[in-house]
Amino acid sequence: MDNSSGVGVLDKAALVLSALESGPATLAGLVAATGLARPTAHRLAVALEHHRLVARDMQGRFILGPRLAELAAAAGEDRLLATAGPVLTHLRDLTGESAQLYRRQGEMRICVAAAERLSGLRDTVPVGSTLTMKAGSSAQILMAWEEPERLHRGLQGARFTATALSGVRRRGWAQSIGEREPGVASVSAPVRGPSNRVVAAVSVSGPIERLSRHPGRMHAQAVIDAAGRLSEALRRTS
């Protein structure tokens, strides 16, 4: 099969990256694996290193760089969003409440997808909304499995406690009653990536008079199932 794209320098750069897929390589190893002239292999590897597509290990050998992991994570996010629409719509129809998908972004969380309740009193969170990590059931989910130091920092000034997050980890879901906004209740569950890391939170939210002061009893299972479907989609496409 002809692997030429017609753009010579790009084809050669792809050869270098493919050669590093099997592990660290010296310059001589790269030359042997790619068939490129030594000056060409060196020039390309250093240029790719400049763009963080290639890095060096402790022995100075060339390895795949951190930028590739960042791009792969972004591709995973795109897959998550592609799958989220139908899953959130189904969750909304099942519970009769607005459904959202949140991701953590620094010290905030952002609504990256939503399916709004079609009529009546509802909790509307437009896509792109940035909300606090200090309150709300999805903030609890995005915080609960963080490493201890980040968890400790995140709890400062939060409306929930370390004990509450311990309960979230044990149950696998979180609820909040008037925590983020008076009169609003919500239930959330974690979406996990292929490495089992929590990458997002699925939520349903609405007025307390409909969700009651125990919203988890009503909707936890539906939210867990929706989060599970998104986690499964990420595993299938990784």
Automatic annotation (TrEMBL):
Residues 7-66 form the HTH iclR-type domain. It comes from Streptomyces corynorhini. The keyword Cytoplasm does not apply. Pfam families: HTH_IclR (PF09339), IclR_C (PF01614). InterPro entries: GAF-like_dom_sf, HTH_MetabolicPath_Reg, Tscrpt_reg_IclR_C, Tscrpt_reg_IclR_N, WH-like_DNA-bd_sf, WH_DNA-bd_sf. PROSITE patterns: HTH_ICLR, ICLR_ED. GO terms for biological process: negative regulation of DNA-templated transcription. The keyword Glycoprotein does not apply. Keywords: DNA-binding, Transcription, Transcription regulation. GO terms for molecular function: DNA binding; DNA-binding transcription factor activity. Transmembrane segments: none annotated. Residues 67-236 form the IclR-ED domain. This is IclR family transcriptional regulator. It comes from the Bacteria.
